[in-house]
Amino acid sequence: MKAVVIEEIGKVVVKDVPMQVIGDYQALVKIEACSLCNGTEIKLLEGKIPWQVDYPGILGHESCGTIIETGKKVRNFKKGHRVLRVMASVPGYSSFWGGLAEYGAITDVKACKEDRVPPDPATSHQGQQVVPKEIDPVTATQLITLKETLSVLRKFKLKTGSSVLIMGTGPVGLSFIYLARKVIGASPVAALDKEDETLKRAPALGASFVVNSAKENATEELREFRGTGFDLIIDTTGSADLIRLGLENVSTNGKVEIYGTVNKDAEPVKPLKQDKRVVEIPPEEAVPHSEILKLIAGKTIDPSRLITHVLSIDDIAEAFDLIKSRKAIKVVLKI
Q: What is the pLDDT of residue 322?
């Protein structure tokens, strides 16, 4: 089967790999689409992921596909189900979540627990959930980021009128802006980034104020806009400098959430976590699944608004170029 493989740092190719094989508690899935994560995928390609990885590996964790076969002990998924977080795991290749492949697998973790059988970690994930057929696979890939970001926002118990600053306007940052404004009712919602081009996207998704962090007077601009500080500041970049900037602009009882992954060679943020205002709440992707589906059905949110480019799996080099140049918000690859 065809898959996107990072063979070594800096080299990504599309190549044939062994066919996905399933066990009794797994389902075989024809993967139809997978979007690129602008953070994790770039870090894997550039060798900047802060944990140990072994190359070569099959890329992609924002995947969606349709079940075409189920193992004999699968009870909670059915043939024909459209599912998220499909993972290819084949001999000779690490699984960098493995969603950019023609076929992959999901695991019936619930059945495993009931039968007291350890689930296969290479093909199981809390986000392997069913989505309605009305949501096409390309659009469905965006549910993963939306669920992650909404789960974090809900943890802070924000109210209508809470003030929020999002630092970083990549897909994750824009998702936070979109949900904070449209779902939570936060106001104002401000956005910060080092590039004007990416900041231009934020107002359409709910930001009422934007500031370029590269400016010497960025802090002064924020203070002029929100003198009392923000109730919640979320850093989506993993930048120690931005976290410090956040601490200068958080309200008395506010919090600065570290959401972004820190590059391996970047300044560590661990010392900043000693400040009681700094928190690191991990996403719980599976939790808001039903809520996100209701928000989509009720037309409160539209996941397709985050997608700027839809390409073929064979266009992986172009996809990475679009992300690196920041010409794309979100690139989805059809498989």
A: 94
